[in-house]
Amino acid sequence: MSALHDLSLREAAARVRRREISATELARDAFARIAAVDGRVGAFLTLDEAGALATAAAVDRRVAAGEDPGPLGGVPIGVKDIICTAGLRTTAGSRILERFVPSYDATVTARLRRAGAVIVGKLNCDEFAMGSSTENSALGTTRNPWDGARVPGGSSGGSGAAVAARECHAALGTDTGGSVRLPAAFCGVAGMKPTYGRVSRYGVIAYASSLDQVGPIAREVADVAVVLEAIAGHDLADSTASPRPVPSYAAALEGSVRGLRLGLPREYFVEGMQPDVERGVRAAVAELERLGAAVEPVSLPHTEYAIATYYLIATAEASSNLARYDGIRYGLREPRPALTEMYEATRAAGFGAEVKRRIMLGTYALSAGYYDAYYLKAQQVRTLIRRDFQLALARCDALVTPVAPTTAFRLGEKTADPLTMYLSDIFTISVNLAGLPALALPCGFDGAGLPIGLQVIGRPFDEATVLRIGHAYEQATAWHRKGAPL
Amino acid sequence: MSALEPVIGLEVHAELLTRSKIFCACTAEFGGPPNTNVCPVCTGMPGVLPVLNRRVVEFAIRAGLATHCAIAPSSRFARKNYFYPDLPKGYQISMYEAPICTGGWLDVLLDGGTKRIGLTRIHMEEDTGKNIHDAHGDASLVDFNRSSVPLLEIVSEPDMRTVAEAGAYLRMLRSILMYLEICDGNMEEGSFRCDANVSVRPVGQAAFGTKVEIKNMNSFRAVEKAITFEIARQTDALAAGERIVQETRLWDADREETRSMRKKEYADDYRYFPEPDLLPLVVEPAWVADVRATMPELPSARRDRFTRDHGLSPYDADVLTQRKDVADYFEAGVAAGAAPKEMANWVMTELLRMVREDKLDRALVIREWPLTAEQLAGLARLVQAGTINRNTAKSLIPRLRGTSRTPDELVAAEGLAQVSDRGAIERAVADVIARHPTQAAEFRAGKDRVVGFLVGQVMKATGGKANPQLVQELLRAALTG
Amino acid sequence: MAITREEVRRIAALARLLLDPADEERLTADLDHILEAFARLSTLDTSAVEPTAQVEEDRTAFRDDVAANPPASEALLANAPARDGRFFRVPKIIE
Q1: Which of A60, A85, B31, B66 is deepest in the core (most CB within 10 A)?
Q2: pLDDT for the residue B479
Q3: Which is nearest to A347 in space by CA: A365, A364, A324?
Q4: Would you list the domain boundaries of chain B?
Q5: CA atoms within 13 A on the CB side of B102
């Protein structure tokens, strides 16, 4: 085994720094791997081999000159196609931006570059990040590397799949209601949604402004920590980005979980969960106890209202955020002689069914006569959901839950009824509503060999504790060592 | 039907004189080729975010303090959602439920005294780009240079009852914003815009009538004409038994009437909600105190001071203090020795005429005057002293313009001093009476008016330099004696 | 019925989405189904609860009033679906 693409991110970066391998070799290996497997996985929408090799060459020159290549120096990384990359097509998985090339980088993209990362390409996602399976992408189908007939999760399905298929050492995704954690769980890798405001949203195509966050996906928790540290921190271009200093997440990983108090929310162990999933998560909890953590039951009583709350707030914000896709300044335009017809035809042709559904729902929730009953009400219930977490996290250092009620489902299985799809998010969305940090990592496999995801939820800006718990569990169990059979 | 009274409210949008736009670092200055003062943020590109310009908030606080508003310790931006090509994001970032300033007022001077007009609110928002129709008429062209330039929206209470009150309020508000140096007050160029809400109701009724919004008034005169027209239209309609439809009407400056806008199938629903990309705006008392400490003397205070200290009529003081630079000019003239009433006269007639003709008042602060305050004061002093008469003084203005000569120099150099020598005038008077016996007889017969003709003849005979009061005096004496 | 077809038409117009009759029917059914499921929210007493304004606490983020050279505007115009020189060209706006 031990091809270059099998190396962890930290190991790859260390070898580049030690001059044992070159960035160019790493990049070439990544593209060879992509060529070998992406036909089956479909993770990438756009590849940038020329750009990647140029960046790799620059890294190699810096290393040769004795300069520090950066914490991600030379490492091939993929970027979800909802994050802007200057000069490289950015589509948000949508026809309406199918040919859009931004002239600017997202802040996270610029930070990856500054850290020496080699961006290999753009990863498939549900259109405008709306979905839980990546089946809503208008531009391609991504398959779960563990079973090609199954979904990789969504909306950052390309990111989860690419990392699981070892096409890159890490990927950036975005998480609004679980879109980093669900693909991580379904694809058997680690993924983190940071605290809201921990990472800049500038240049990240907006779905729901008060919920979106960029998060890293990688094969190991320690790799997630390194990427997070590189992209996190204050940004003058994003008013909602926190000025709090970024601790060294990598340094925070070592440390025992002994004495930590972990809460198990009773509302997250529901009927209708796949039995293997419940078994896997409870076993993980037992393992954490064995490692010295104290586990206690907690209650998050407003959990049952979370789906409605999320889907009203997120779609309301999205209906407004997507108004700019009007055919005037960029993107698709369906030419018509009159303006209103042009708007309507462009948006009808450019947006897929799920996006239209959410725009309609969100517009309705904000409309005159309904604002109080829907949007305002949802924001009030959001406060109640946040309070539930505040109370639980006053007693506990973190909460432990499943990521999803099932493992990866089949392509086409949940597309008939939108509500069925929305229910996949049931354990992840409250975390976005509360703005908390949460990590997903593998905790076993079900009877069909599909990965089961464990979620660790922490206090605001306490990514360090969450990562520490995840790292300790991961190192004690080694689920992450089993790779997808590709 | 009982007498109807108009009820008028005014909504002003003032473009702010910041260096950069409200949410991005593009220049806020007017001009430049189309789509050059633009960036991803103010053109609504995917993924961009707004960041608030602190100076815009400072200007809003200034405006709020000057109009006695309460400054909210916490306020919130909100999205106003609608589709239009000049609105790049498909929403305008404005403020809705929680504006920064509320509950203010200002006093306006009217013929009968002063009236207090209430201000409902002041808030900040971004301007849109501009649509222009292309030459062939089948398309529109959009320029985003103006997109995201900061605006203050200032909404009055429906406290005005006459067109005069509306005009006075608008002028006072504009003066205040110009004194604060936050807006250059230019209606013609669009940096100071006004929409009016007009309704009528029976005198004595508490409930308001149906209000109609009037837009597209591009000058003070247009505002006055449009409101006048609309009041008449509504009055006539009600007298004819019709109902007033709540709607927006546009002022048509060519036809001089308001007309309905095209009806849309579904009414606009702006779906306001709090802007999630911006944090709540926190304004601490210390900041408000800092701004308060830098406030200049405001127009009404200056006007009152002019009335007290310079003995001017309230009307004259009002005209002189509408612009701070004019008020400063006036006071510089007084400091240079001109009597206040005389200086006021010269400023209000000659100086302001030239300023308007040359469109100098388009600038926030006039720096180059046609005549300096010292020059105009010099003319005023010469007239006060009787050295030259008013007509002579007026004739010197074009000759002083753009030069550094003083009136004293010019008068001395050309011997323009008024003839006040009684003997010389008596001789001229005698001469004129002798040459115009008919008119002299008419005067003696009781036709007093004819003295004007005879005075004119004496002025002509003395090359226009005789002291007119003395001519009158001596002429009458000679005619009756 | 949580939402009628007429309301769906009105919302589609507000959102500038062109819906054919089949879309309208499908969306009316979908939205109705979803909104019925959300009806539970109305049973919660939130009379004393503040809506979440922002997940962050009390600070405001500002920029200084400095005009910086904007990035090359040609790059922004380059994405235009239709141009006329330096203008974005759009179908006629009927007033």
Answers
A1: A85
A2: 85
A3: A324
A4: 4-291, 297-413, 422-480
A5: 10
Residue with the two structure tokens 């008042």: B361
- Quote the CA–CA distance of B368 and B365 in Å, as a whole number: 9
Task: Work out the average pLDDT over C71-87.
Answer: 89
Q: Is C69 exposed, middle or buried (0-12, 13-18, 19+ CB in 10 A)?
A: exposed
d(CA A456, CA A398): 7
Chain A from 283 to 312: CB within 8 A of any B CB: none
Look up A200 and say whether it is catalytic: no
Which of B35, B79, B100, B268 is the mutation pick for testing C, counting most C CBs within 10 A?
B35
The type of residue at A326 is D
Q: Tell me: the pLDDT tens digits for A26-74?
A: 999 999 999 999 999 999 999 999 999 999 999 999 999 999 999 999 9
> Which residue out of A22, A137, A155, A319 is catalytically annotated?
A155
Contacts of B21 (CB under 8 A, 6+ apart): B27, B28, B42, B53, B126, B147, B148, B149, B150
Could you confirm whether A356 is annotated as catalytic? no
Q: Return all residues near B203 (Cβ < 8 A) that are at least 6 apart.
A: B2, B3, B4, B5
Distance (Å, rounded) from C-alpha B396 to C-alpha B196? 44
What pLDDT does B74 receive?
94
| The residue type at B377 | A
Binning pLDDT at 50, 70 and 90, where does residue A101 land? very high
Is pLDDT of C58 > 80?
no
Helices and strands: H and E segment counts in chain B: 16, 17
Q: Among B53, B83, B140, which would you mutate to test the C interface (most chain C Cβ atoms within 10 Å of its Cβ)?
A: B140
Distance CA A309, CA A432 (A): 11
Selection from A97, A106, A104, A108 nearest residue A46 by Cα: A97
Q: Do residue B40 and residue C76 have CB atoms under 8 angstroms apart?
A: yes
Distance CA B181, CA B419 (A): 47
Fold of A4-262+396-481: Amidase signature (AS) enzymes (3.90.1300)
Binding partners of A (≥3 Cβ pairs within 8 A):
B, C
Residues of chain A with pLDDT > 90, as a percent, come to 95
Q: Residue B168: what residue type? A: A
CA distance A438 to A227: 15
Is A80 considered catalytic here? yes
% of chain A beyond a pLDDT of 70: 100
The 10 Å Cβ neighbour count of residue B412 is: 12
Token pair 């300023």 is at which residue? B355
Chunk chain B into consecutive blocks of 10 residues (it has 481) and report each block's average pLDDT, rounded to whole numbers. Answer: 89 98 95 93 98 98 98 97 97 98 95 93 98 85 97 98 97 97 93 97 93 95 97 95 93 94 78 96 97 96 94 93 96 95 95 94 92 94 86 90 89 77 83 89 88 88 82 86 70
Fold category of B422-480 in CATH: Arc Repressor Mutant, subunit A (1.10.10)
Q: Which residues partner with A453 through β-bridges?
A: A442
Beta carbons of B280 and C54 less than 8 Å apart? yes
Does position A1 have pLDDT exceeding 70, yes or no? Answer: no
A456-486 per-position pLDDT tens digit = 999 999 999 999 999 999 999 989 998 898 8
Q: What is the mean pLDDT of residues C33-44?
A: 89
Q: Which two tokens stand for residue B189?
A: 């160029």
CB-nearest to C53 from B52, B139, B280 is B280
What is the rounded CA–CA span in Å between residue A23 and residue C43? Answer: 59
Distance CA A151, CA B278 (A): 36
Question: Based on C-alpha coordinates, what's the Rg of chain A?
Answer: 21
Residue boundaries of the structural domains of chain A? 4-262+396-481
Ramachandran quadrant class, B446 (left: phi over 0; alpha: psi -120 to 50; beta: rest): left
The length of chain B in residues reads: 481
- pLDDT above 90 covers a percentage of chain B that reads 75
